[in-house]
Amino acid sequence: MPLRLLKYGLSRDYPVSGDIPATPELKPAYDVVIIGGGGHGLSCAHHLAKYHGIRSVAVLEKGYLAGGNTARNTTTIRSNYITPEGIAFYKEGVELFERLSQELDFNVMFSQRGQLTLAHTEATMRSFHMRAEMGKHMGTRTEVVDQKGVEELCPLLNMDYGGALEILGGLWHADGGTARHDAVAWGYAAQASRRGVEIHQRTEVQGFEVVGDRIRAVKTNRGRIACGQVLIATGGMNYDVALMAGVELPIRCYPLQAMVTQPLKPWLHTLVSSVSLHTYLVQSSRGEVVIGGGSDPYQLYSTRSTLDMKEHLAEGAVHLFPFLQGVRLLRQWAGITDMTPDYSPIMGASPLANLWLDCGWGTWGFKATPVAGKRMAQTIADGRVPDILKPFALERFETFRLLNEMGATAASH
Amino acid sequence: MNRLPPPFGSRIDRSRPIRFSFEGKAFDGYEGDSIATALAASGQWMLSRSFKYHRPRGILSMTGADANALVQLPSDPNVAAERTPISEGMRVSAQNVNGSLERDRDAIMDRFGRFLPVGFYYRTFIGPRRDSWLKFWEPIIRRKAGLGAVDTKAPHRHFDKTHLHCDVLVVGAGPAGLSAAIAAAEAGAEVVLCDENPEIGGALSYGRYDPAVLAGMSSRLAALPNLRVLTGTVCNGWYEDNWLPLIQGNRLYRARAREVILATGAIEQPAVFRNNDLPGIMLGGAAQRLIRHYGVRPGDSAVVLAANDDGYRAALDLLDAGVSVVELVDPRPAGGVGPFEAELRGKGVAIRKGATIEAAEGTAGNRHLARVGIGGSWVACDLLAVSIGQAPAWQLPCQAGGKVGYDAATQTMTITLPEGSVHLAGAVAGTDDLDYAIASGRRAAAAALSRLGHTVDEQPPAAGPRIARPRYVQPIVADPKGRDFVDFDEDLQVKDLQNATKDGYREIELVKRFTTVGMGPSQGRHSALATARIVAEATGRTVGEIGITTARPPVGPETLGVLAGHHEVLERRTALHARHIALNAVMKPVGAWWRPYYYGDASNAEEAVRQEILAVREGVGLLDVSTLGKLEIHGPDAGEFLDRLYTMAHANQPVGRVRYCLMLNEMGSVVDDGVAYRMAEDQFYVTATTGAVARVYADMLFWNAEWRLKVDVLNLTGAFCGLNVTGPKARQVLEALESDIDFSRDAFPYLSGRDGTVAGVPVRVMRIGFTGELSYELHCPSSLAPRLWDAVMAAGRPHGLRPYGLEASRILRLEKGHILIGQDTDAITTPDELGFGWAVSKKKPFFVGKRSIEMRARLGQSRRLVGLQFPAGAGNIAGESCLVLRDGAPLGQITSVGYSPSLERHIALAYVHVDDQAEGSRVTVKCRNGELIEAPVVGHAFFDPTNARQEI
Amino acid sequence: MKLLTCPMNGPRNIDEFQSFGPVRARPDPNATADREWSRHLFRAENRRGVVVEWWRHVPSNYFFLAERDLVSNEIIRTFDASEPRDRA
């Protein structure tokens, strides 16, 4: 039995940890104002405080802590992308996850059980080979497996031999995994606030005071804050918040839906994802099977669920695992994703000198929570963008230096 | 036996006994019994072990909503024992037990609760090593997690889906729903009334009400042909524009209703005190359902905890069922006399007011209730019926936009809906008295009818007082020793919620996420109200400020099978499919289409492909190209239209000529290619790649919605088939067929098209050259394609004509360096990167993508698609997708590679650095096994670089 | 399933339609600076409010315009492209 459980058992009172301090009064000014109290914003706050000694930091959250896409995503963590720039960045993200529970002294339950993406067409197999070759070159564990390999990794799959959706092979990414999304945010929040970062829940940004090429102050529903540097990390609200500062981002918002079954004894040990069926499944450590897929077909800022998407995801899940017919669904939900034209994020500088962007995370942001926070903190502390982030600059849309990750993003996020 | 004589037991048929087993032991019940009621009738009250502490659990609500009564069937996990009918030979077992239900080794967890405070797993299991969680702790947790087990060999079951349309959908056939449905139908509306129970009536079917009320409504209902009743049907969600899934067994009705009346009733809430989870402690409604529906006596000796009339009614029902009621405890302060008090006292029941149950104790191992603590002393009993409060069934109303509020005076949750097409009636609207419920149903019907345009003659009855006197007094008696459960599904106690707030999880959504309260099978039905009250008290706010978490669909559990239904995968076959099969083709799916991969013996695929290539290069081959996109553009602006869409010039294209066409998107990236045959001044026939045609067609229509040119676009992809006759002897084959087309070289030159008939089949023929050989592509109506195929095959026989498949086609085109869109191009490929400057008009003022490729050319280009050739007999060949490196950095990739029998070596197309594009440059390629090899850059057209063969 | 009222075919389930996104201004490609051109290509109308969008009724291949609220998802009106547009 771990020592801490013994401590709990022997102490008379509940050992209060106080992870999230109650929201304090707003001060008139902070060195850094982080807009968005989700995983990315909190991660940045933690890195600023712990590694750069910047503790005059306010994290502003419109609702409750980490209640946006941090709480709604299906927690896929992976680095099997297409572009070398993307792979290098996400690979660092996976490596940070491998140490994250120790870093935060909070169990984020990083469960690196591997991700198996399935190909039902030769075109998909070809794209898998591209990702595998690039992934291997960049030092990730990404390989193409044949039908036998798929059967060994996931023996319960319906291979549909001879059928129109025969599984021809897969992309096996041993580095892939999941983590407990809330725990990541709470762990960062606890660490950051222990070092003096202030977390302000129910604090909504309503505008900016822009003077020349700088933001002088942030206007909120609780008052005005003068600021040194400002970071936007507001997920589905990025377009709106940036626009308040006069910055127009190439982003469109779409709902992304997911659903979860009742808890079952473990039977699915890897993440399984099908490109053709637009469906992926993963079983959480609670035993629930989380099922997700593609985005909604039209722009919308709403977290309503639809029956159509639920039926579609059920079709995919039952096709892959026919014995799931009798398994019961518990809940469905949605998040608002900020999609970029090339399915890569926008990180780094903005047209304003002290406004920094951590935006355009679409459907793929959770896995980057540690690395985006670390690198954006470095950017803010140094006042310049590190090499690893440079390819993700907003200007890439003016120079056609797109980082096209659509093929590595559409089915599993 | 706990079975009561008739008239108790409305749902069971005593003439039909059924035998089944539970935990390996035989039990008897009757048809109509659910698993839980048949077991209860035989004295088996324990149904499950709880999620975390493995405490014995039994019937709580009889609604099937909570984890307490989930059991395992061989092929069905997490089955609601309270609602699932028994059948002969059914094998039922408990789930989430280590050993057996009776002897669960994990029951020891109940003693270690203090070591496992709320959220303990976030603070432990971290070390000692970086992968300790993955390798050591998680496997232990995973084994303990979950409830039921899936049967991976479960037999396939049939599900179906259908649609249902109505003027008014009424959800819930209790008194309010019945009165609403009758009122709406009597006014002439098409009405559907659904209820999850097997009978109508709701509380009227099991509560202590005058049977004449239900009988009267039943007969009125039966006389209404425009009122359709769906019993055993769950309305499991509300979606935009009144789209509601109704689940009846294995069928999903997707219902569209113009108006919806939600009469979903209320959910009885448990009381919170130490050991409030023991089997034998149940809600009053559960006891009444056992008695009236199933004829099961819920206990021998009962205490009733009642804070409303329903509790008093339940006490009287228990007496009628032969249960000795020891005492009725009413937590409301003394004063005022309710309608049933005198009757109860007259039957010798002691009533204690202003008191509550403070704790309970169980028999050995907490297997059943033994006694309850009231006012500091213990009262022995084996049944505690709890009727202390209700929460309106908020799930459907909230999905439909309703807002939950809280009335502190009566400790009641309230729901308000915005004005619109969804209406509330009965207990969900806060009017739970029978007369008021019936009146509120009629009021809701009147509102719906007036929105539908019906004239409502009768003035709807006025709203009654919501609640006459307090009836919702939910006692929360926190116990220092715990086991005062708020959420039975998740084994959460009062202190767990309090402790979460101490750690800063003060918002209700954070409390939920940190403690998992409300996340189990019952989704907060029995915990949301108590949770809000506990969190409010712990954080110094009001219950209204705390609120409840978002109610998401589905309302109750639903199987993936019923959602998936009878799913068919979309498949397309060309009109020549049967011909390919007859010729022993190996078929493969390409997108939605099935296409011949090669013909002949699968054991010698390589040889078959080689022979097919040989036939094309030296004789003649026949390829089914019917999957190609085929579009026809008509109208006076047809030429202008193509000029704007494609990069080459088409407006000036002579009639009878065929031109390559290349399509870009606005970004200047290549998205499709094909050929355009000008059939007349105002008519083009254009091909598109198989995978892109749907998008190309839609884009054409979209652009023209903006341009408003005088053109029509027809998608003939399915209507027409295409046969490519190719090879040096192609002309001889066609000339052997009866035709009005002159196939001679001079009359029908390369890149021209002709209409006519071949073998009596009307055709459009284009001379194009994907294979690099003399080629005629014959397109004809799909219904006539088999005839044309047979004729060509017959005419070709003397010339050794061979049908060939996709694999040979790919090699043939690769030998010519022809690109495949999507394989040799990606989302950012420009014509320049392909060396396709020749295909881009420099003269046209506009075409889609023109502005962008000019800008991109100025920004500079970094890569170029070139041919690579590997030396004959090379040991390691780089496969498709292998990286092209420059100074160790990945610069490009191989996009196509194959062995060319004509050249007797491997050839490839690859992106290389723009500085390496010259013929003779050498590039480094990283093979799949990591070996670096060098390959020389060669021209695109590996075979017959002067293109002499296709123009003969 | 949400309903969308096609000006030609009446109210139909929204899965019969294909969204082509908000109507975009079409700058003259030959009179637009590079920076403005790339903005035209990549920027997207995404304000929290009502937008005018292109929709296609797939079975009939009819393209029309709809005013829709991106927050509430309410479709305010649908109309043929030849009709005057209040917004955009």
UniProtKB/TrEMBL annotation, chain A:
Record key words, sorted: Oxidoreductase
Residue ranges annotated for the FAD dependent oxidoreductase domain, each copy included: 31-378
GO molecular function: oxidoreductase activity
Coiled coil start-end: none
Entry GO CC: cytoplasm
Keyword Oxidoreductase: yes
Record protein name field: Sarcosine oxidase subunit beta
Organism this protein belongs to: Mesorhizobium hawassense
Organism phylogeny: Bacteria, Pseudomonadati, Pseudomonadota, Alphaproteobacteria, Hyphomicrobiales
Automatic annotation (TrEMBL), chain B:
InterPro entries: 2Fe-2S-bd_N, BFD-like_2Fe2S-bd_dom_sf, FAD/NAD-bd_sf, GcvT/YgfZ/DmdA, GcvT/YgfZ_C, GcvT_C, GCVT_N, SoxA_A3
Protein name: Aminomethyltransferase
Keyword Chloroplast: no
Superkingdom: Bacteria
Family to which the UniProt record says this protein belongs: Belongs to the GcvT family.
Aminomethyltransferase C-terminal domain segment(s): 863-944
Sorted UniProt keywords: Methyltransferase, Oxidoreductase, Transferase
SoxA A3 domain ranges (all copies): 481-565
A GO molecular-function annotation: oxidoreductase activity
UniProt cross-references to Gene3D superfamilies, sorted A to Z: 2Fe-2S iron-sulphur cluster binding domain, sarcosine oxidase, alpha subunit, N-terminal domain, BFD-like [2Fe-2S]-binding domain, FAD/NAD(P)-binding domain, Probable tRNA modification gtpase trme, domain 1
A GO biological-process term: methylation
GCVT N-terminal domain boundaries: 576-844
Membrane-spanning intervals of the chain: none
From TrEMBL, chain C:
Gene Ontology terms describing biological process: tetrahydrofolate metabolic process
Name of the protein: Sarcosine oxidase subunit delta
UniProt GO MF annotations: sarcosine oxidase activity
InterPro entries (alphabetical): SoxD, SoxD_sf
Signal peptide segment: none
Source domain of life: Bacteria
